[in-house]
Amino acid sequence: MISTKIVIAGGFGVGKTTLVGAVSEIPPVTTEAAMTPLALGGDDVSQIPDKASTTVAMDFGRITLDDNLVLYLFGTPGQSRFWFMWDDLVKGALGAIVLADIRRLDDCFPAIDYFEKYHTVPYIIAFNTFDGHLEHSVDDIRTALAIGADIPIVTCDARDRKSVAGVLMELVQHAMLNATGASHGR
């Protein structure tokens, strides 16, 4: 049995806690705290007005993908005031998912920058399609994000176990391809 660590990163309120909870086979560990008036003053909730809590440390879950692979999921907090924790959460990870909301594309730029500039962890971008579809083509999104064709872009519904499992499989395949490519001088 092989076990490995996966990080789920992204902006504030994109669905990281929901994603971990949807797929975890154990009750997920969350560090949700109520949104206080002070947080509401600093966090933009205009696109997510019903948000009442936020992750202040991490989320944790586990999923067994097959008889030989267990993934331990670590969801990062989204606000910049908690980014100091990201280095510890990413340490030893097989890869990362940058979860994004197409309605708030700018919110995923810091997570993409983090993985592009500060870590060699393979990552993919997953758009949480709250309404079931993307309104833009993947090519247009890739251009807007200024990322190369080597970074997979997928869609998911962070509330749906099967959809999230598909994203995790995509990340594992991408990470394995990167490891194989690195060992062949890529």
From TrEMBL:
InterPro entries, per database record: Gliding_Motility_GTPase (IPR052705), Gpn (IPR004130), P-loop_NTPase (IPR027417)
Single annotated GO MF: GTP binding
One Pfam entry name: ATP_bind_1
Statement: the UniProt record of this protein carries the keyword Isomerase: no
Source superkingdom: Bacteria
Keyword terms of this UniProt record: GTP-binding, Hydrolase, Nucleotide-binding
Family membership: Belongs to the GPN-loop GTPase family.
Listed PANTHER family: ATP/GTP-BINDING PROTEIN-RELATED (PTHR42708), GLIDING MOTILITY PROTEIN MGLA (PTHR42708:SF1)
Protein name per the record: Signal recognition particle receptor subunit beta
Species per Swiss-Prot/TrEMBL record: Allonocardiopsis opalescens
